[in-house]
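Example 9 (inverse folding). The structure is encoded as follows.
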């Protein structure tokens, strides 16, 4: 495959007949990251507003991730059938409606229902990656996904801090009004710039779903998907547990927590820059391996610091930059790898891989919320992050072993 498919028009910003501009892809992917973490510093205040326990309020993270995972089973085949553009636009419209529901929710049950519906924004994340794979070959796709997610990494650097300040100044609803404004702006950009990149399949949706076993029988697909899933699992566990650790263990205010909370995004930015710069030089497997090693190293060091009684907000959030670095190296490359196992199923692979990654993250996020108590401190979170990082390392080693087996035939 050549660097860009020859049947696609040259990229031109604002021309919906051409493939999307990288700015559009960055903002589409960034919306999903923003919706996931911008409101986290507000969880304690929202718990008080809805008169519920923190563990119940924290379900707004786990439910969002779980429904994102379920949606991605359908997003991939649907986009392979009808195209990337219409699925993204409808996903953004549903997200806007759900955001209004969150703002005006009278009870925690109603809020969690609309929070679940907000997961429709996952279409933007999944299909921005699939669009890159439509346009480029494997290693070039890894590089481009790296640049897209490098730009996306700016969002979690700043969005928790913005969310914390909005909460302190205007209340938690202001954060969701921010979601609505951003979603409307991204919808307008996608409408005018998101040209179709997929070769629309002539198969029925039933036939599309019937192709899932082709992916599920591939050891390499499973290896890449699990490497990405376990690597990101450490981050999702962080999403579920860090607000508790920051405010209960360390006594931080929402605004201060918001400033510290974006620490992993600094490492994520660097990791994605390195992916964009070196993926074509070293190949996706080595980049994933280095990412899993960085992830595990950050977990080991942070746990040791707490074991000797020296844990502080600076050490806890500071070492999370290593986890972010590992994710920045692992996820774009593992994603490009799993989308390239069966290139004709790129959308399906993106959706299924996302389901594995996000579904596992939902479980970890919910589990951490249950395990963390004032008595346990940060230890359940730190142990869970370390174990998932090590499992990611095992997964990419399985891929590399499988490729050596195939090369020896």
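The amino acid assigned to each position is listed next.
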């Amino acid at each position: 495959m050549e660097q860009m498919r020859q049947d696609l028009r040259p990229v031109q910003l604002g021309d919906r007949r051409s493939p999307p501009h990288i700015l559009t892809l960055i903002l589409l992917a960034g919306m999903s990251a923003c919706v996931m973490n911008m409101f986290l510093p507000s969880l304690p205040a929202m718990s008080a507003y809805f008169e519920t326990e923190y563990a119940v309020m924290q379900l707004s993270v786990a439910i969002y991730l779980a429904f994102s995972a379920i949606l991605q089973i359908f997003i991939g085949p649907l986009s392979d059938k009808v195209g990337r553009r219409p699925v993204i636009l409808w996903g953004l419209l549903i997200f806007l409606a759900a955001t209004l529901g969150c703002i005006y929710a009278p009870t925690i049950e109603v809020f969690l229902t609309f929070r679940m519906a907000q997961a429709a924004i996952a279409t933007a994340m999944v299909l921005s990656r699939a669009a890159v794979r439509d346009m480029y070959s494997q290693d070039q796709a890894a590089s481009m996904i790296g640049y897209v997610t490098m730009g996306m990494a700016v969002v979690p650097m700043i969005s928790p801090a913005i969310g914390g300040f909005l909460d302190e100044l205007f209340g938690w609803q202001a954060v969701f009004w921010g979601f609505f404004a951003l979603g409307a702006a991204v919808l307008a950009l996608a409408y005018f710039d998101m040209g179709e990149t997929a070769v629309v399949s002539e198969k029925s949706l039933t036939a599309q779903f019937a192709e899932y076993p082709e992916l599920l029988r591939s050891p390499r697909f499973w290896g890449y998907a699990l490497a990405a899933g376990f690597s990101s699992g450490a981050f999702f566990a962080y999403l579920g547990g860090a607000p508790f650790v920051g405010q209960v263990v360390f006594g931080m205010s929402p605004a201060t927590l918001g400033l510290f909370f974006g620490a992993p995004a600094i490492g994520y930015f660097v990791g994605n820059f390195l992916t964009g710069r070196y993926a074509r030089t070293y190949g996706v497997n080595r980049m994933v391996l280095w990412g899993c090693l960085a992830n595990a190293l950050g977990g080991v060091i942070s746990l040791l610091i707490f074991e000797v009684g020296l844990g502080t907000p600076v050490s806890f959030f500071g070492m999370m930059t290593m986890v972010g670095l590992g994710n920045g190296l692992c996820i774009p490359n593992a994603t490009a790898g799993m989308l390239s196992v069966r290139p004709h199923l790129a959308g399906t692979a993106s959706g299924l891989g996302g389901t594995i990654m996000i579904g596992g993250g939902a479980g970890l996020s919910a589990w951490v919320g249950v395990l963390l108590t004032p008595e346990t401190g940060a230890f359940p979170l730190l142990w869970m992050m370390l174990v998932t990082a090590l499992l990611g390392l095992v997964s990419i080693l399985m891929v590399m072993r499988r490729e050596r087996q195939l090369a020896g035939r």
